[in-house]
């Protein structure tokens, strides 16, 4: 994979129990501006359920990135994206308490540990 920015990432099925804490892994470190907690971020992302390995959401599938104030996103993103640099690709493994809450919380993803692969395209 010579240029990861142009291709949708793939996530290998995780092995073992889901982590209870946020896990942050830089797949590729960017060299652009750094995201801050107060940033508006432009990202491409893939979301996969830890348990099933099934994709539940992807900006790649819609063919366009998303642009959001970081503070409006789930806690796992609010904690896991600051410090990331534009041009980077980062994998976040987000436990339920930093995603959509415990099982029965009313969201389809409540109670699930989620894996996101995020490409940071821009910050403002």
Automatic annotation (TrEMBL):
Residues 1-21 are annotated as: Disordered. It comes from the Bacteria. Keywords: Isomerase, Rotamase. Its EC number is 5.2.1.8. InterPro entries: PPIase_dom_sf, PPIase_FKBP_dom. PROSITE patterns: FKBP_PPIASE. It is an enzyme of class 5 (isomerase). Residues 1-11 have a biased composition (Basic and acidic residues). The keyword Isomerase applies. GO terms for molecular function: peptidyl-prolyl cis-trans isomerase activity. Residues 38-124 form the PPIase FKBP-type domain. It catalyses: [protein]-peptidylproline (omega=180) = [protein]-peptidylproline (omega=0). Belongs to the FKBP-type PPIase family. This is Peptidyl-prolyl cis-trans isomerase. It comes from Paramicrobacterium humi.
